[in-house]
Amino acid sequence: MEVSIEPSWKTQLDDEFKQPYFNALTSFVKQEYTQNTCYPKGKDIFSAFDHCPFYETKVVIIGQDPYHGPNQANGLCFSVKDGIPHPPSLVNIFKEIKVDMQKPYPESGNLERWADQGVLLLNATLTVRAHEAGSHQKKGWEQFTDGVIKTVSSELEGVVFLLWGGFAKKKSSLIDKSKHHILTSGHPSPLSANRGLWFGNQHFSKTNALLAQMGKEPIDW
Fold it and tell me: Which catalytic reaction applies to this protein (predicted)?
């Protein structure tokens, strides 16, 4: 099965693409995209990887599911296409950056600008049926993206993992803490943020401080 993905990732994930589960997943996704409206567009499914080559990965942010409304999902977790209203979690991310980094609230919710600087914006599930949150969960995507996290952990050093909320925090067991950095907090969703579990985590300035300590270029959030 040929997968169209950025070449350095293709090399690293070659074993995953050859697994029986990935063939079954591919068949499922093709059928879903043929029979239903699904997001993101087919060409954007691996967009998080295409914008962030393997050896340039400095930060990993883990999301759960793509947005399931029209024209929202662009293949990067928490990100929406240019000109699309910002979903509540993204609003809270930008509010935290505004305070933490003294940056103005941005017009566009498209986070490709982060990915192009080495931030892997990884959803655990890479596709979804329109208006049905979680509809493509437990079909093999989680196994694939867990494999991605393990590969980053084993093959790279000094990556900063931002784990927001209970779901993402469970992924910490896949990460070698002796050579990577993990920052955790509540999820930026209103439910969590309004309970005081998100705002003030300063993850963006803390990430840049860690990158600077390692001699890496900080992220322009």
Answer: Hydrolyzes single-stranded DNA or mismatched double-stranded DNA and polynucleotides, releasing free uracil
